[in-house]
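To assess whether the prediction recovers the assembly geometry, we first specified each molecular entity separately, as shown.
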Amino acid sequence: MKKDIEEKEDVIKFVNTFYKKVETDPIIGYIFTDIAKVNWQYHLPKMYDFWESILFGKALFKGNPMEVHFKLNQKQSLGLEEFNRWKELFFETIDELFEGELATEVKKKAGSIADLMHFKIHSSAHTQIKVKPIE
Ligand code: HEM
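The predicted structure of the complete assembly is given in tokenized form:
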């Protein structure tokens, strides 16, 4: 039986494993390597903080993920195919390494953040319903 996610070392492990898959992925890899030209040394520790904040309630992460992905979407459209692939790789990574309450929790959280991101990106600005201000 696999162990559950318990501490920072576990977060480091799944983040590193996930982005190794992402980097060479035929569907989304190029967005990270060619479009955003991600500096992994800088990105990975940010992601450790992000997931530690979510899983263990520590206020470590300082960033603005929505803004980052909005901007990225202007360079390269992030649609359903890309988000589905992201989720697939994330769930696959967690299932390979862990099982238990937090493992289930992190997949749920990742899934709902991904869905929300996708929704917000595609419902912004021009597609937003304009409501007249109340006089
Ligand atoms: C198709 C899906 C996605 C793509 C292609 C993508 C790509 C990227 C890229 C290129 C960056 C910038 C890295 C850098 O330049 O340092 C980034 C940052 C980030 N991503 Fe994603 N991402 C995706 C989905 C997600 C999802 C679903 C989450 C959360 C569950 C997420 C969380 C983050 C966070 C926390 C950052 C750092 C933001 C910051 O610096 O403030 N991403 N992503």
